[in-house]
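User: Hi! I'm a student and our assignment asks us to look at how structure tokens line up with a sequence. Could you show me two examples?

Assistant: Happy to help. In each example below, the sequence comes first and the structure tokens follow. Example one:
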Amino acid sequence: MTVTPEMTDEALRLDNQLCFPLYAAARKIVGAYTPALKPLGLTYTQYLVFLVLWEQDGLPMGEVCRRLRLDSGTLTPVLKKLEAAGYLTRSRLPEDERVVTLKLTDAGRALKREAVAVPPQVAGTVCLQPDEAAELYRLLYKFLDGEET
């Protein structure tokens, strides 16, 4: 197939890029979380770490990275700030010092009681019906997990 200038122009139109609405939607949803998380003193990424650890405390850092789809270089500064704030501890396993385990402190566990107000506050800013939100969620994970149609 020969690529024509018209095909190139069409391929490079912003409106034809899947990446753009994904990027803009991500910015919009993170922006919706910002005022909800401000009273807790948390960033969105810190909140995500808490969500994982509130589900299962004492996880290895690698598992938290996997669940959040972040690399350790991105997550380490976030964890250092949470540790400095007294919300979690990081410790190496004696049997394998390469493994860093994350454990919530009492303050980190207590923050969960305040954070319970965040999801309904953010949900009120999303202009999708519940079935539309569920479909979007399904499609996004299909994309993230690389499933074939």
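Example two works the same way, sequence first and then tokens:
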Amino acid sequence: MNSKDLLKNFKSVPVDLMGVNDRIARIKSRSVKAEAKIQGLHMALNMIDLTTLEGADTPNKVRQLCYKAMHPHDQMNGIPTVAAVCVYPSLVRTAKEALKDSDVKVAAVSTYFPSGQSTLEIKLKETQYAIDEGADEIDMVISRREFLQGNYEYVLSEIISVKELCHKNNVRLKVILETGEIGSLDEVRKASDIALLANPDFIKTSTGKIGQAANMQVTLVMLQAIWDHYQKTGVQVGMKPAGGISDAKSALHYLIMVKEILGAEWLSNKWFRFGASRLANDVLMQLAKQESGVYQAPQYFSKD
């Protein structure tokens, strides 16, 4: 089915802001104790996409990041790896070689990240290049310009084209909405609903390149959109809040929210990710505290 047919009877669901805030307040009031906390911290670490997306990125920096992905803390026993390392397409091959024989995936940003301001032809060529270099996952950005102009058919058509290319090559697709640029929670819900019509593997909040990144309000709205889509279609879609999540306590609250809205089936890195490199160190500090009874100083953890 093409984008025009999919949007024929499209109607997004309005967001109950008071209800969203009330539910988040209740989730934040929860405390997680003892073994459940340790289990949650391990789960959160295994859901992180370690990311470097700077103009000054070098192969050596990517190799260092890949080592950390596979060995978050060599002095702690039983620590899982992270889920993936996310880089620009030109560094995918470097990451792929560094991560060989591990379960850590290589994700590549694509479709003229972070702005999305290019043609579909160029976006598809860049995506194919990243796939040819060895990417396991593609993180694409939607065309916010077209979304803000109400050209929803264009937005959906691009997502469908990229998804078809990815799935033809057995590569998973995450669709970045850049929620900080598209307006209110009602618009976030609308963008989520449009992206979900394409049945991508994930929807994702942000690029991490603007001030407004992931927050619990936006994530809750997107999780609810995923649940409603699942109820209608039976198609499971993952979620990735990205940017702005840097402490373990917040990560645990996100996991509680996922379990309450989507259920335990989503509590694995196949269906939920954190795009939050700084989060890894705080999770490791909390795990060290649980193991030894004292916090380790930040300098005991690598920055990359």
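Here is something you could point out in your write-up. Residues 48 and 274 are 5 Å apart (CA to CA).
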